[in-house]
Amino acid sequence: MGAGEATTCLRVGSTGNRCLNFSDPFGLCSEEQRKSGGCPQKGDVADVQKQTWVNPTGGAVRGCDKQGCGNFGAPRGDRTHAGADYVARTGQDVVAVTGGEVTNVGYPYGDDLSFRYVEITGSDGYVAREFYIQPGANVQTGARVQAAQVLGTQQRLGGRYPGITEHVHVEIRRSGRLIDPTTLIPNPVP
Ligand SMILES: [Zn+2]
Question: What integer pLDDT is reported at residue 124 of this predicted model?
Answer without folding.
Answer: 81
